[in-house]
Amino acid sequence: MLAIGGAVMSREDIGRDRYVSLYPIHPFGAAQGDLPKARPEDLAETAHLRFDPISACNARCVFCHSDFSHAVKHLTLDDLGAVAAVPMPKLHTIAVGCAYEPLMGKFFETYPSVLQSFRGQAKARIITNGALLHRRDIGPWVEFGLEYLHVSLHSHIPEVYERTMANGMRFDRIVRNLAEIRARFPGVRVLFVNVICKLNDEDVGGYCRWAFEEIGADQIVLFRAVLADAIQSRAPAFAFARQYLAEQGRGGALTDEEWGAVVRDCAPFLQGAVASELPELGASISTLTMDRPTP
Ligand SMILES: C[S@@+](CC[C@H](N)C(=O)[O-])C[C@H]1O[C@@H](n2cnc3c(N)ncnc32)[C@H](O)[C@@H]1O
Ligand code: SF4
Fold first, then answer.
1. pLDDT per position as a tens digit, 232-290
2. What residue ranges line ligand 2, CB within 6 angstroms?
3. Is a pLDDT exceeding 90 seen at residue 47?
4. I want to staple 278 with a disulfide (CB 3.0 to 4.6 A). Which of 105, 160, 171, 285 is the partner?
């Protein structure tokens, strides 16, 4: 981790690409002032920039590994500006939302003006739970060049959605928000992400039908949740993993067989689907990506 202005950034080289992630605070709570300062050469080769507008979230998804017990801080325009001031000729994607909820950030609509020098060069993606779409304006991002809106939505069954995302999240709210986005920005691609554990593995085939046919999602990515078991963490995933094990006598993550059943449930949508394994969190996450069937 490196310090840049009042923010914190990480720099990773994955394959041939450099990924830079920018956070308003250190995501594990370490002091920002103790970190070495980022140099222009840390940024110059960046292909993918992602940033968190705020270190907070309005949901508490049971499988989320983000730790919400640290300070709540917004990413300032100056801190994003310090990154944007470095020429990054390879930059082609900018993801808004990384470990927290971007629509809670008070500068959400203003960041595109700070990134103007990359307009036409890089495309943006917004990664959100969508619950505040009725209060915020994605218009400036659409004007900047929005590749897609990525909405994390973990069931089409209201009670299952609400217990999985927790913290008072409302299913009817997200459905209305998506209808409004569809009506206002018919050209924006909408991707759904559904992280699946034992709490929300009911009727995933029905979820796909609902998402494609009723909401008009362009793509669905299913993730088989991995629940890490570090007892000391304050992230929701750790509390859920412990509680589920205590109550059910088994882990809350799907077994291979259960994941197989989820995939079979999606049979009508599997033509052209891509399945993969992502080595992350010390384990392997299975994913399944499906595009909306062409009529
Ligand atoms: C940490 S969230 C931050 C952005 C925003 N709050 C959201 O939920 O879209 C980023 C993505 O991580 C996914 N995610 C959360 N917990 C996960 C887990 N245990 N395994 C895989 N993906 C997970 C979420 O569904 C979301 O798509
Ligand atoms: S996955 Fe859920 S809890 Fe975690 S940041 Fe996104 S919406 Fe918040």
1. 688 999 999 999 999 999 999 999 899 999 999 999 999 989 988 766 544 567 899 99
2. 57, 59-61, 64, 66, 100-101, 129, 152
3. yes
4. 285
Nearest CA to ligand 2 atom 1: 64
For residue 174, pLDDT beyond 60: yes
Q: In what order do the strands lie in the sheet with 146-152?
A: 2-4, 7-14, 17-23, 46-51, 93-96, 123-128, 146-152, 190-196, 219-224, 283-291, 274-280
Nearest residue to 152 (alpha-carbon basis) of 241, 68, 63: 63
Q: Is 253 in the pocket of ligand 1 (CB under 6 A)?
A: no
What is the phi/psi pair of residue 54, to 5°? -155, 155
pLDDT tens sequence across 194-238: 999 999 999 999 999 999 999 999 999 999 998 876 556 889 999
CA distances from 181 to 11, 175, 178, 215 (A): 33, 10, 5, 11
Ligand 2 centre distance from Cα of residue 149 (Å): 15
**Ligand 1 atom nearest to 193, measured from its CA:** 27
Please report the pLDDT score of residue 295 as a whole number: 77
Alpha-carbon gap, residue 265 to 209, rounded angstroms = 11
**Looking at the DSSP assignment, which residues form a beta bridge with residue 219?**
191, 291
What residues pair up with 287 in beta bridges, in sequence order? 223, 276
Q: Is the Cβ atom of 46 under 6 angstroms away from ligand 1?
A: no
**Would you say the CB of residue 193 lies under 6 angstroms from ligand 1?**
yes
Cα gap 131→107, rounded to integer Å: 17
Mean pLDDT of the chain: 94
Pairing of strands 17-23, 7-14: antiparallel
Residue closest via CA to ligand 2's atom 5 equals 100
